[in-house]
Every structure is written in C-alpha cells, then in structure tokens.
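User: Predict the structure for this protein chain, please.
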Amino acid sequence: MKLFRLINFFLIIPLLLPLLTVAQTIPVGMPVLEGTYRRMQLLGKEDAAVSFTVQPLFPENAFNVYDVFDPDSTLAKARKATFNGILSFGHKRGKLQLLPVIWENQFNSFHPAGYNDGIMVPAKGYQTIVSAGVYFRYGPLGIQLQPEMLYVENKSFETFEDIYHKPSPPNNIDLPERFGDSDFTQFFWGQSSIRLTFGPVSVGLSNENLWWGPGIHNALIMTNNAPGFKHLTLNTVRPIKTAIGAFEFQLIAGKLDGSGYTPGLPPDWRYLNAIVATYHPKWVPGLFLGLTRAYQVYRKDMGHSFNDYLPVLSPFQKDKTGNTATDAKRRDQLLSLFMRWAWVKAHGEVYVEFGREDHSWNLRDFFLEPAHSAAYVVGMNKLFALKQRKGEFIQLNVEITNVASNATTNNRDRGNKDVGVGNWYAHSQIRHGYTHDGQVLGAGIGPGSNSQWLKISWVKGLKSFGLDFERFVHNNNYVITDIKDIRRNWVDLKFGLNANWEFNHFLLNFQAQYIHEINYEWRYRPEPVLNSPPTYWNPTKDTYNFHARLGFVYRF
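Assistant: Here is the predicted structure, written as structure tokens:
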C-alpha cells in the first residue's frame, strides 16, 4: 500500500496544474545534437533561463522547437521530400513522430576504455548499439518508445585477476572488468518513457538516462555512463519562471540492478531515491545554483515510512536525523552542490560541482572538515569567434574531476575502523556500490579516480572538428591504501581526434584516441639499467591502446 501512496504522490501534484503541453526529449548523449543546444544558448540563440543541469532536455518545451532533432532548421531547408516523419492529428492535439535511427560503434584494441556510452560495457574488441522508435502524444499523454539493442564482441584480455589472482579492487562494488567470457547480444528499453505533462511539469515512468549537474565530460551523481534504469519521475520540462527567478527540478524513485558478474554480492535489487533542483536568480543573468542528492538501499533493508520512500527530503545533518540511527538504516547518501554561470555576450561559461559522500554530523563538523569524503568537478567552456569567417568559432573546453580520497577521508577514526568511509561510489553497507548493471551511475572514471580533460574544436552549426587530451588516474585510493608505492600509479594519457558532421538527413560523429597506459593494472616492473647503478625511477614497459567510436544518425 505504501508504494501506491508514493505513486499517488507523483500523480496528484501535476493534475492540479491547468495547462497542457508536450514532453519530447533529446536523449542524454544524443550524438551531435546535445552539445549543439548548449552551444546555441551561449551564442544567444536559445532561452538563457534553461540551466542545462537537469537532463534529458525537452527542447520543444524549453526552446519552442517544432522538430527537436533539427535545432537550427537546416534539415527542414535541405529536405526535398514533403514527409518529415511527423504526423499531426486531432486539430494538432495529437502528434506521431518517427524517432531518428541511431547506430553507434565502438572499438578497443588492447583492453576496455571509454565511458559515458550508455548501454555499452567495458570490453575489448568491437561493440555496437542500434536504436530507433516512435513518439506519440495526445493532449497531456506522451509515449516515447525508443528501445536499444547491444552487441558486444567481448574479446579476452589480461585482467587484474589474471595478474594478481584475486578480485579487482575495490571488491565492495559491482564493477566487473569483463562481462562474461564470450560475445553476447542484449535488448533494453533504452530511452523510453510514458508521461503526463501539464504546463511546465511532467510525471511518468521512464527508463531514460539522466545527467544532473553542470559538467560536460563528468558529473558526480548522474550521467549516461551506465544504462538507463526504470524510475518514476516528477520533473519540469521547462523553467518555472517566478518573480524571483526560474526553477527546474527532477525527483525520481527508481530500481537499480546488479550485473550478475561480480561474485559474493547480495541478489537483492536496490531502491534509489534522488533529486536535483536548480535556481536561476532573476537579478543575475546566466547564474544557476543547484543541488543533487541520492539515496540507495537494498529492498530487504527498506522500511515503509515516508522517510524510507523519500529520504532525499530528510535533514542534511546526522544529528538531525536520529544520530547513529541513520547508519542503522543501511543506506548510502550522495550529495552535491553546483554552480553554472553562463555569459552570453562573452560566449562562455564556468561551472563547478562539489559533493560529499558522507553526512556531516552537524555544522561544526562540516566547518572543521568540509573536504571529508569530498569530490568535485570544475570546468569552463568558451567560444572564440573567427572574425573573417562568419558563424565559425573555436571552442575550448577544460574540465577537472576529482573523486579520489584525501587525508580526512582516509582517517578511519571517523567511521568503521575496518572499512573506513567516504570512498565515492563504494560503500560498506551497499555492496554493489553506486552502480546499475555493473557500471557507475556518476562519473565514468569510477571510484578513487581523477581526470584532467582538454578539448579544442572548430565549430560551425552542427559541424565540429577538434583535438582532445585527457590524463586519467585509475583508482588512486587503491594506490594509497593497498599498494603504497607512488611509482605504481595507473595513468592513461589520451590523445584524440573528434568530429561531428551534418549532411542533410544524416549526422555523423567520430572519435579516435591513442592511449598511452602507464603501469596498466598498477604494474611497475623496472627494467635493469645497463652499466649504471639502479635508481628509484627505473624505466618500465608501458602498454598502448587504440579507442575509436563511430556513429550515424538518420533523421526523417
């Protein structure tokens, strides 16, 4: 009965709203188009009140776009046939649209690489996604059916267990290095949803990927690194504009599953309750302030009170939530605060997200050790106009992500001395960690890791071509707590080419990366230096990987 009350909570509120509207999304990670809308806002071509911190986007609502897959109307101008894939009926109260056909391909030559790729899994060799579907809307009802099919070649490679003959670190999280020992094909609901939408608010059931926060390359709590998961959702489809500014939010209640490839984990599924809320002050153009919060708990450990179903509405400090009774509930919380400041006249933006994995006991504790169990994302995005070439720009992206532990997090006196606290995405009480189907829901770099990312691109409309560089440190927490030898850090140095191109109905996206693997799987095996005394930094053999992605989108 409690579950039905929760569903009623989601349904009653929007029914009080008098206005009908539509609610069609651009899926998170949609090739070419997702970045285009954000760039168009910085160029002053879209509503400056949209935060881009609560995704998926609803361009038809937020930007008043007739065809969400044709943001700059270039397809409408180039289209030779009269059929555009959209059928209106019922005096325009109804709409039936063929969704784009999407074909994404990925290849890794040496071992798994890449993240923020939805249902794709860590794998060596070739894998591909095919997706297509339809969108139906009549009055307030909207149904988006967009299933996805995945094929994975899944070649064998040298894993942590092969080298060290023990499970990969950390072993209290469901992150298998390899999904089985043969190729496989899977089908998913993909970016499908059913919604009732009234005015700026929508309620429904969805399997879509979510992206919360201002980050472009990483976000702390919700990204498209893992497959989409089933969830009830109550969310805005456009900013709610008031006398003091604009508001956006999303509240979800979802179901997280395990991969089935990590031994020793409970067979139970996990309940996830999460929220994101953003405020745009009326008096400060381009400024967005927000919060994200997520709780997960095994179904068998879940109670039946209001707080058990909606813990994200509980106080933020342990001394306000029953002291140690909070830990007794055997659930894990993630929390972040973020800021995005977009300057339309300067065609640029800066953003930051700061998160905590563990509650503060009270305000005194927070001010004493604010960095305890902390993680952050900080970045900038800037467009430089090419004066001699109208409509062309050089785009610069810089982003730094840190989810590795610091000195206060590694202080085990703060919690259980046997397991410690504060390791992002891994938690002693939730053995699966903050994952779904064996992949992290937040930053794709994973537990204990760091990333520094730079991208320089030429852009014009939907077209772009550029270079990207990334330094990716794998699970530095494992080095600090177990290896304790700074020479054995596993660091990827990535150098890549990327391109997006538009040709009438087709969109093309391409990425190729050369990856220099320093100490793959934390191996440091010094080579002897002939005719000289040994030194601390003796050279060692590194490994190399080639990572490539190629995608095609056909728009009707």
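The domain at 2-554 is CATH 2.40.160.130 (Porin).
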